[in-house]
Specification:
The complex is a heterodimer of chains A (about 200) and B (about 325). Helix content of chain A is about 45%, strand content about 25%. Chain A is of the alpha/beta class. Chain A is elongated. The termini of chain A are far apart.
């Protein structure tokens, strides 16, 4: 008899947990609802194709590094973009050079005037592109989470649609032009390792 | 007689005394250490390690080891995030199965439990040394995390989950509540239940435990299962704190957990130790990390310091056992 109570209670507990853990909906209804909500991917697409690729915000990487070395505050003010306070800022840069190596994660590029740089081709995350572009404002969104979803959608677009087809065609020794975001800090004006989060890679 | 009792008491309180001395030293060197904000931060930071280390304590008490907890943490955290964010879609049935935060947490704990049980099964069924079996799981679970997430963080999981990692309840951070509950439950289990006594018996002398009728394989299976489940609790806490499941979460967490267990006085050869000791061990590591950061010590030196503390703990433990 005791066993019946024990298993009965266990079943009740499982039922309670299950009821509060899982919900079922029509897939079509879920998709319709998602479509009716703000479409972050469409927004990111428009930012990328209508804004990022068309504006002339990108500064030449050699010129930027030289400016940072001579007058970091001025260079950060003129070219950089940051949301809060701090020593770091994001910059939209462009440079050209010869590919030294292509790995699963990155392209090692020997640039014409700015030395070697790495271009992330696989792990494109964070807010570098959104913030460097200067096209998206925090005040346009109700919450930080929504603001971050723009980054997520923008990164997904570049990571899955923009970069892979170009990278597939490239080989070591090819010359390319790259436009993308870099993060620089006033604390380290020499910046021994430049990592570019690409917005666009074009074979020359 | 009285001297022997005092010596025993001193030996048992060694890690607690070390914690107090460490706190006093850091408080003397940094005026920020004893501020409420900093102390809450320390408690919040150690809460994940406490959960994992409690599971590790049970394993080590049985003279075992579980190197997979960091990877299990990452995989279960990813499963939690994936369930909450994506659910399951069945195209042919026009059905979407979604998961609430509770569903995600339970799913993660189930995954942790299953991976832990798998560890236990391999160890008991094929008599594989725990070090090797759990080392294999370390790689398997990390690989599964990468496959599940495609190496990409699963982010923006909503404010409800975020509350578990960053929220406050009755003036105490939620992760601290979680670790407190875990500690209380497992102090009770290890001290007041037959299951707890069996763990000590197996660690003390496995042959004798077997001859006295304890189902050793079943206890081992359960302990590894629990260790996996507690790693999953840690995984949920990490995911909640970041509001994002990171594929490389939990790297080297197993080392911090083992360090907490050893510093807390649990013998790596099994049979001796306690959950409360492990909590003190985790606190020592947390305070040490925090103190070194407050004192602007280089991260490289921080690693050296942590290693020295672990070494000292093991040497002192060995000396104590010789004396006893």
């Amino acid at each position: 008899m005791k066993k019946i109570y024990k298993y009965g209670l266990l079943l009740l507990a499982l039922g309670f947990l299950g009821y509060h853990s899982v919900y079922f909906k029509k897939l079509s209804a879920v998709r319709a609802q998602a479509g009716a909500e703000f479409d972050f991917q469409a927004y990111a697409d428009s930012i990328y194709y209508q804004g990022m690729l068309k504006n002339d915000r990108a500064v030449g990487l050699p010129a930027l590094l030289a400016a940072v070395r001579t007058d970091a505050d001025g260079a950060f003010e003129q070219y950089g973009n940051r949301l809060g306070i701090g020593n770091s800022a994001y910059f939209m840069v462009s440079c050209a050079g010869e590919i030294a190596e292509i790995t699963a994660d990155e392209i090692r590029l020997v640039t014409d005037e700015a030395g070697p740089v790495s271009i992330n081709t696989r792990y494109i995350f964070g807010n570098a592109l959104r913030d460097a572009s200067g096209l998206v404002k925090l005040t346009d969104f109700k919450t930080n989470a929504e603001f971050n979803r723009v980054s997520e959608a923008l990164n997904a677009l570049i990571r899955t649609k923009v970069i892979p087809p170009v990278v597939q065609q490239l080989r070591a020794g090819d010359r390319i032009e790259v436009t993308g975001a870099v993060k620089l800090s006033k604390k380290t004006p020499e910046h021994p390792e430049i990592v570019i989060t690409p917005a666009q890679i074009k074979p020359e | 007689m009285n001297i022997t009792f005092n010596n025993q008491l001193l030996r048992r309180s060694q890690s607690l005394i070390a914690l107090f001395l460490l706190c006093a030293l850091i408080a003397l060197l940094s005026d920020k250490f004893l501020t409420a904000t900093n102390l809450w931060n320390v408690l919040r930071q150690i809460s994940v390690n406490v959960c994992i280390a409690v599971g590790m304590t049970l394993v080590v008490l049985m003279a075992g080891i579980d190197l997979s907890v960091g990877s299990v943490l990452a995989f279960s955290g990813a499963v939690c995030a994936g369930l909450i964010k994506y659910g399951f879609a069945f195209e042919s049935l026009d059905l979407f199965v979604g998961f609430t935060v509770l569903g995600g947490i339970l799913g993660a704990m189930l995954v942790g439990l299953l991976l832990g049980l798998f560890n236990g099964w391999v160890i008991t069924k094929f008599v594989v040394p725990p070090f090797v079996a759990t080392l294999a799981m370390l790689t398997i679970a990390r690989g599964m995390t990468m496959l599940y997430t495609q190496g990409i963080p699963v982010s923006n999981l909503g404010p409800e989950l975020e509350y578990i990692g960053s929220g406050w309840l009755l003036g105490i951070p939620v992760p601290v509540w979680i670790s407190l509950i875990v500690v209380l439950v497992f102090v009770f289990i290890s001290r007041r239940t037959a299951f707890g006594r069996y763990i000590y018996a197996i660690g003390g002398n496995e042959k004798v435990a077997f001859l006295s009728g304890i189902n050793i394989n079943r206890i081992k299976l359960a302990v590894y299962g629990l260790a996996g489940m507690l790693a999953a609790v840690g995984g949920v806490m990490v995911t909640a704190r970041l509001n994002s499941a990171q594929p490389n979460a939990g790297m080297t967490y197993e080392l911090d957990a083992i360090a907490a267990v050893v510093i807390g006085g649990t013998s790596l050869s099994g049979g001796v130790g306690s959950v409360t000791g492990t909590v003190i061990g985790a606190a020592i590591i947390g305070v040490l990390n925090n103190g070194l950061v407050l004192l602007n010590v280089s991260p490289f030196w921080q690693q050296v310091a942590k290693g020295v503390v672990i070494l000292l703990a093991v040497i002192i433990d060995k000396m104590n056992r010789k004396e006893a």
